[in-house]
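Worked example 3 (structure in, sequence out).
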């Protein structure tokens, strides 16, 4: 049927004479629909082709009519089972029509998704084949399986070639499953690179520099060698072919600059495993730069002299000892960092790992999130501790100036000499047996000071609790006040000698000045 007239004639023939009025209503609706579609640019033939068969429309009408008659009948002339059967069949037809409509809409979108996935895996396969001389097992298998699925999707649009498409689809599916079995048996599903060893030697010890970055798991060690040898780097492990080319050309101008195993979406199915890197540094050599940027690894760094010391580690542990540098930067997300007996102006950024620094000479800045920082035996002009929700402990150190802040964590300073400024929002600050000038500022958290010796101190609080414990044998004049909180001062009657004085003031928090008891 190509015209609406032919369609309506067949539809009228399917209706009984007594139902001609209902047919006429349906006819008006169809003609109105035709007019709208013609205005939108469709042809009459296209509109008629999109309509359901006349017999099906008539059957649906009489099924609904029978159901209404059965439900509204005053006497039960139709068995209940037949009513239910008519209702179920009607609902099934409606659901079937709905699903057919949904499938017609989603089918092109599903096909586009399959084509996009095919393009990705095909690009992956070609890229690895060119750059790594390796046939990517999993991406290639996915390509074959996707082609088989795509052929089945488009089969409905090629009714004359369905058998040929089915055969082709089965062929791609069988090839893909065979390749999957072969790669599984030969352990080639993942690309693992090849075993490789290389030692790179620099030309001299003057202006030598090392820079190494990797997103793979790496074990790094430094070894001090004789001053007569040249700086060198040894790389060992499984590497991609593209990375081996980088290693072969990674040295220039007396510098090693390597970036290996860079993570990208085209390395999803690559597993090269842990590699090993050893730096051989002649005794007395001062490097221009020593940089390591790693996603995962374990580092053991000993006896390094460099102008710039830079570590950027996502996860893994660092142990460094006897590092001498002008400037140092250490960033660690989740690993532990231990630095011993070193000299440099150091900045440390830690998220959740543990940082331990002992016996260091030079300025120190630590920004911690929720990890633990332990600092001992520092000799510094300036120490800055910024703690969010973790814990920082500074002990047995000397500094001209200490600035420590605690947002929601803890900062503890013990037996340290210098001008100490410690501020707290809602966390906790503890000052114990320090020497110098104390300036303790408290928001809503706790401030605790324990003193055996005499000091000059200013302690202030908004609403937090303040507790000061003073050795009675080293009595000092302590002035304390609070707005609305509880106040106790065991040293209020001590005479002012003019040299040492402690002033404690809170707006609304409790203040307790107590004698220290052994």
């Amino acid at each position: 049927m190509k015209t609406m007239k032919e369609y309506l004639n067949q539809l009228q023939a399917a209706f009984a004479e007594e139902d001609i009025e209902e047919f006429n209503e349906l006819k008006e609706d169809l003609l109105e629909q035709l007019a709208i579609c013609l205005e939108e640019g469709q042809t009459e033939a296209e509109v008629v082709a999109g309509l359901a068969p006349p017999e099906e429309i008539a059957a649906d009408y009489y099924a609904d009519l029978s159901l209404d008659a059965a439900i509204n009948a005053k006497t039960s002339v139709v068995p209940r089972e037949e009513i239910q059967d008519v209702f179920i069949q009607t609902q099934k037809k409606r659901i079937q029509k709905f699903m057919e409509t949904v499938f017609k809409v989603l089918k092109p979108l599903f096909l586009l998704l399959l084509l996009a996935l095919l393009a990705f895996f095909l690009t992956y396969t070609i890229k690895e084949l060119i750059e790594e001389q390796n046939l990517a097992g999993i991406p290639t298998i996915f390509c074959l399986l996707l082609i088989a699925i795509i052929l089945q999707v488009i089969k409905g649009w090629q009714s004359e070639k369905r058998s040929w498409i089915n055969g082709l689809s089965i062929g791609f599916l069988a090839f893909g499953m065979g390749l999957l079995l072969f790669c599984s048996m030969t352990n080639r599903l993942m690309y693992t690179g090849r075993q490789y060893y290389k030692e790179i030697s620099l030309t001299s010890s003057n202006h030598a520099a090392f820079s190494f970055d990797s997103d793979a798991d790496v074990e790094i060690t430094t070894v001090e060698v004789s001053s007569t040898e040249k700086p060198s780097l040894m790389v060992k492990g499984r590497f991609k072919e593209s990375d081996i080319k980088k290693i072969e050309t990674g040295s220039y101008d007396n510098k090693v600059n390597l970036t290996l195993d860079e993570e990208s979406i085209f390395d999803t199915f690559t597993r090269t495993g842990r590699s090993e890197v050893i730096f051989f540094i002649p005794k007395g050599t001062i490097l221009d730069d020593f940089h390591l940027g790693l996603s995962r690894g374990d580092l053991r760094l000993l006896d390094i002299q460099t102008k710039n010391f830079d570590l950027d580690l996502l996860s893994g542990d660092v142990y460094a000892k006897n590092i001498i540098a002008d400037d140092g930067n250490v960033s660690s997300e989740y690993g532990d960092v231990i630095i011993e007996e070193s000299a440099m102006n150091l900045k440390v950024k830690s998220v959740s790992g543990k940082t331990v620094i002992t016996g260091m000479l030079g300025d120190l800045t630590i920004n911690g999130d929720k990890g633990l920082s332990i600092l001992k035996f520092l000799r510094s002009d300036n120490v800055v501790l910024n703690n969010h929700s973790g814990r920082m402990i500074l002990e047995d150190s000397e500094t001209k100036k200490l600035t420590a802040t605690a947002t929601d964590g803890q900062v503890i300073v013990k037996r340290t000499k210098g001008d100490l400024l410690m501020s707290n929002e809602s966390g906790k600050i503890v000052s114990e047996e320090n020497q110098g000038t104390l300036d303790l500022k408290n928001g809503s958290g706790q401030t605790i000071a324990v003193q055996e010796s005499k000091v000059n101190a200013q302690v202030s609080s908004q609403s937090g609790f303040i507790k000061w414990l003073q050795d009675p044998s080293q009595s000092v004049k302590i002035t304390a006040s609070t707005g609305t909180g509880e106040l106790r001062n065991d040293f209020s009657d001590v005479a002012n000698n003019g040299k040492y004085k402690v002033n404690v003031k809170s707006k609304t928090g409790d203040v307790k000045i107590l004698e220290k008891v052994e």
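Notes: Residues 80-132 form the longest helix (53 residues). The helical segments are 4-13, 20-39, 44-49, 54-72, 80-132, 137-154, 162-185, 241-248.
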